[in-house]
Amino acid sequence: MKNLKNVNRLTLGLGILAAAALAACSSSEADWNQANTQGTVAAYQAFLNKHPNDQHDAAARQRIQTLQDDDAWKSAQTTNTVEGYQQYITAQPNGAHVQDAHDRITGFERASAWQTAKTDGTEAALQDFLQKYPSGPEADQARAQLQQLTYRVQLGAFRSSDLADKARARMQDRYGKDLQNVVVVAPEGKSKIYHVASANMTQDQAKAACATLRKAHQSCTVVKSAAAGG
């Protein structure tokens, strides 16, 4: 009889434990469904606080990370600046939009560099831009602008590269600002003459530069050169 009572007590205890576990499971599922319905960081965090070792623990943490990542990305897009995208990368180094953020930053930097090169308008500035950004719509514009630089200001002709180099150095010191850059043009074909001339320019730029040099009593001639390429 005593053994029967003990068995009954054990059965009752197990039943209570099972009922409690079932109730806890039911409460966990209900809270999980509620968190999913609300779909907010606060809702998932509340679920984790209430059910720290639940089967949905990993999923809740992932949802929080995804929501925080999306919020940070939306903020960066709203700001739409280099600083905003850099802040996103710092806050979400493993975020889903990190590559997009890097691409946006590169786009801003490329556009800024292009404005500088385009405003400068010199062969050196355009070539420097293309060396750093060889592809993209701005690169196409830079190449098109280079194609317009088809004139030089010719300063002298020399029978040796040594004489031409010395003359180039003198002209660069005196007129480098007006001529953008002074170069030695090597002989072409059967010619043995080295020419000292400006960098490639537009015709208007070459005429203006040569006029300035003539006022300083430096002889010069505007000549056609091969189209600059990139």
Descriptive labels:
9 helices, alpha+beta, 230 residues
Average pLDDT score: 87
Structural category is alpha+beta
* Quaternary assembly: single chain
Strand order of the largest sheet: 2-3-1-4
The residue fraction in helices comes out at: 55-70%
**SSE pattern, N- to C-terminal:** HHHHHHHEHEEHE
Radius of gyration: 37 Å
Number of strands: 4
Q: Sum up the overall morphology in one term.
A: rod-shaped
- Biggest beta-sheet profile: 4 strands, antiparallel
As residue ranges, the low-confidence spans are 17-24
Q: Number of helix segments? A: 9
Span between N and C termini?
102 Å
Strand content: 5-15%
What does this protein structure show overall?
By secondary structure, the chain is an alpha+beta fold. 67% of the residues lie in helices and 9% in strands. The protein has 9 helices and 4 strands; from the N terminus they run H-H-H-H-H-H-H-E-H-E-E-H-E. It has a 4-stranded antiparallel β-sheet with strand order 2-3-1-4. Strand 2 and strand 3 form a beta hairpin. Helix 1 runs antiparallel to helix 2 and helix 5 packs antiparallel against helix 6. The radius of gyration is 37 Å and the shape is rod-shaped.
